[in-house]
Amino acid sequence: MCNYCGCREFPLIGRLSDEHEAISNAAGRLRRAILAADADRLPAFDALLELLLPHTATEEVGLFTELRAEGSLTSAVDDLCAEHDDIHGVLGALDRAAPDWAPVLAALDRLHRHIDNEEHGLFPAAVIALPISAWDRITPAAASP
User: Fold this and answer.
1) Most exposed among 26, 41, 125, 141, judged by the fewest C-beta atoms under 10 Å?
2) Per the database record, which ranges form the Hemerythrin-like domain (predicted)?
């Protein structure tokens, strides 16, 4: 995860980055379980979904909404939302009775790239693009002074 630009000092970015780390770790556990044909594949899959679904909702309802309103990063936000839809679509289509893990592994690769793009592209750009009033609207209440 990004540690060089200071964007994690913004409470929402810090929270989303921490969630990215947890999601990446869960995705790694799932990948290892799939490749080992481990019996824990479905629990590992569920653990990833439990982290991923609320995370993407937070991004889309908070940060992405403000970035769309600001306007300069709309194309990047649209691309990231399309990636959310793609990854969620693959994961949501898993047949739990007879899982085909190949598409899930490919989605995990896309998820890794997606997180990297947010951490090293969108998040630092958002810090520059958004006015303080936008950050005030989307800063988690628990993080407020």
Assistant:
1) 141
2) 14-126
